[in-house]
Structures are given as C-alpha cells and as structure tokens.
Amino acid sequence: MKHDTACIHAARDKSHGTGAVAVPIYQTATFAHPGFGQSTGYDYSRSQNPTVEHAEKLLARLEGGAGASAFASGMAAIATLMELFAPGDEIVSTDDLYGGSIRFFNNISAKNGVIIHYADTSVPNAVESAITEKTRAIFIETPTNPMMKVADVAGIKEIIGKRNILLIVDNTFLSPYFFNPIALGADIVVHSATKYLAGHNDTLAGFLVSKTEKMAETLHNLKKAIGGMLSPFDAFLVTRGIKTLAVRMEKSQQNALAVAQWLRKQPKITDVYYVGLPDHPAYELSVRQSRGFGSMISFRADNEDTAKSILNNTQLILFAESLGGVETLITHPLTQTHAEVPEGEREARGIDGRLLRLSVGIEAAEDIIGDLERAMG
User: Fold this and answer.
1) Rounded to whole angstroms, how far apart are CA atoms 176 and 245?
2) Which of 4, 13, 46, 157 is catalytic?
3) Pick the catalytic residue: 170, 187, 234, 371?
4) pLDDT value at position 72?
C-alpha cells in the first residue's frame, strides 16, 4: 500500500456493522462487562478505548512499528517515555531541540536523576564522543528545531552497534508520510500529533511508536499507570487529520521551497535554513533517508527591527506558536518556543532576536510571499 493510501486505509475499522466510514467516537469512561470473568476487551478508557486504539494502530502501521501509544500531548508522550529510565542513567540528546523538551530534560529529568548530555547529533563523531558506559538512550530530533539540522539515523544506529542503547527519534517535523525512522534502526518514534498529524491547529495529541511488541507493551502500561492518555474525541480528530496528511504535506512542502527560494533573494534576510535547498549541508542525506524535506523554514533578518516588523505586520501569516497546521504560522524562538532555554545555550545554537521560524501552510505560495514582502516594508 502506498503511503498516501495508507494514511486513509491502513487501520480501517471493520469491527462494527454500521458501515460508518469515519471511526466512531466512543465517548465513554468505562465499559460494562458481559458477565463475571468476561470482558469485551475494553474495561476503562484510561486502559484502552476503541477510538484511541484505532488511532494507535494507524500510527503504528504508518511508522512500520509493532505498536503505538497515544497521549494527551507531545510532552505527555515524552514525559511517559522518560519513565523508562532510572536515576543515574544517561541520555545523549540533540542539542538544537524544541524548548519544551529542553525544559523537561533540564528540570524534571534532572530532578529525577537522569543525566542529559547534549550533542550536535548531525555530527556522528559528536554523538560517539558523548556516549558513556551509563548511556541508555540517544534522543534525536531531525530536522532540529529551530536550526533545521539533520541526523543520520542509520549512521547513529551503526555507532550504537550491539550496545544496550535505545535510539529514539522525534519525527514531528517530517511525519510518517515523509520519514520512517524505525526502518533505519530507531527503537521508538516520538510525535507531537498536535502538529502535522492532526494538521488543523485544533487539538493536542502525542504518540510513541515502538519497534517491538515488548516495548509497545511497556509504554502502554506506563501510559495506563501515569494517566496521560488521549481522549476519544481528540483521537478522532487526529485520525481525521491523517486522512489528508499526504496532500497537506505535499502542498506545504511545495510552498516551503518557493518561500525559501524567495527569502534567499531578499536583501533584508541574511540566512535561510531549509533542508530542501540543494546547498543545505544535509540535503543529500535527506534525499537518502527520507521521502521529503517538510515545510519548516528558519531564517535570520538583518537586524531585530526587521524581525519585529515582520512579526507585527503580517496579515495572512499568523504570529503564533506551534506548527504543522493548514495555516502558515511565524514564530520568534527567542521569546516563544525557546524562551526558557538558558541564554548561553540559546546563543551557542544561534537563537537570537533576528531568528524567525516559519511553518508554511497550504495557502497559495504567492499569497504567503506577498504577505512577507509587505511586512518587511
């Protein structure tokens, strides 16, 4: 089954006799038992719910995993994931990482005794140098947020070799339509399904997809114990969103390339970071390991006044956090997504007042470019 067809049909529910094309919303907290010692397979929605289960099966199939668990947000997924580790365990993480993940690692994980070593995961030698005898996982975000660096997933898996180290990949930016890390050796794939999977800026959701049934069962049990599960209605919205994932990803990527090419010609823009530009350092790697480049662009204005002018004067493009919806959104990482990252770390990663991040939507590319042109003045 082709990837665009799989987005619609990979987990089609044939278990009920109504003929409903859309998965039903089982908006119930609990389920009645047929009799003593009997179960329908569903007991309590924190443990499992048919609508949520459908979304989990769909994600597992799209990612080529053995199973998936759905959560109330991407951060709820990561918080549950981190319960795999014990005090004294060490994790090598992408240094250019979503600010919310950094906040969790630096505060919650550190409090719990899990040690995070940040490294440039786009440089294999940096990953290898960061591994110690206590390393239990390598956590990769690719492309990274916001500097759009790309990690060689198969190469890092080769570095891990036979060591007992989990390879975890956050695949939010590319989605399973463009990228399947498990096929390259990843053990767990993370998604903030709030973004491209749901695709309409109208729900929060997260997923962990596991390569093995054993890990899938472990994460499901952690989800049940901790309680950060996805609601049936939000699971329905994610499933509905995935039906148009292919057309949205293709259109937004097409737009992103046009916008990136236009930005590079503007005298008030000094740098453009988009993986789909042929001179991006990871362009050839991306061609080898993924089926697309996505639609996330970061760019740097010539000064902070230009950056503020763009943020204050766009009409079509919305100045808002998040990404991956049908609307084009512009973000100021310094004061939004990465505001709580220590100043020294931000500066070292190039996150300054001139840097802007663009999540390109599915509007007409000409309208997006026209809006940016007017806002620049």
Assistant:
1) 9
2) 46
3) 170
4) 98
Q: How far apart are the first and last CA of the chain?
A: 48
Q: Has 162 been annotated as catalytic?
A: no
Give the model's pLDDT for residue 98: 94
- Cβ count near 48 (within 10 Å): 17
Where does residue 25 rank: exposed (0-12), middle (13-18), buried (19+ CB within 10 A)?
A: middle
**Rounded to an integer, what distance in angstroms lies between the CA atom of residue 24 and that of residue 193?**
19
Domain ranges of the chain: 3-242, 246-376
Q: What is the pLDDT of residue 18?
A: 82
Say which CATH class 3-242 falls into.
alpha beta
Gap between the Cα atoms of 179 and 170, Å rounded: 11
Q: Are strands 355-359 and 296-301 parallel, antiparallel or unpaired?
A: antiparallel
Write down the catalytic residue from 61, 195, 211, 248: 195
* pLDDT at site 353: 95
In the annotation, is 211 catalytic? no
Q: How far apart are CA 314 and CA 14, in angstroms?
A: 46
Rounded mean pLDDT for each run of 10 residues along the chain, 377 residues in total: 92 78 94 94 95 97 98 98 98 95 96 97 97 98 97 98 97 98 98 98 98 98 97 98 98 98 98 98 98 98 97 97 97 90 83 97 98 94
Q: Which two tokens stand for residue 150?
A: 């790309």
Which CATH number applies to 246-376: 3.30.70.260, 3.40.50.300, 3.90.190.20, 3.90.1150.10?
A: 3.90.1150.10
Annotated catalytic residue 279: no
At 288 the pLDDT is 97
What is residue 30's DSSP assignment?
B
pLDDT confidence of residue 13? 75
Catalytic residue among 26, 98, 177, 274: 98
For residue 194, the model assigns a pLDDT of 98
Q: In the annotation, is 12 catalytic?
A: no
Let me know if the fold of 3-242 is the same as that of 246-376.
no
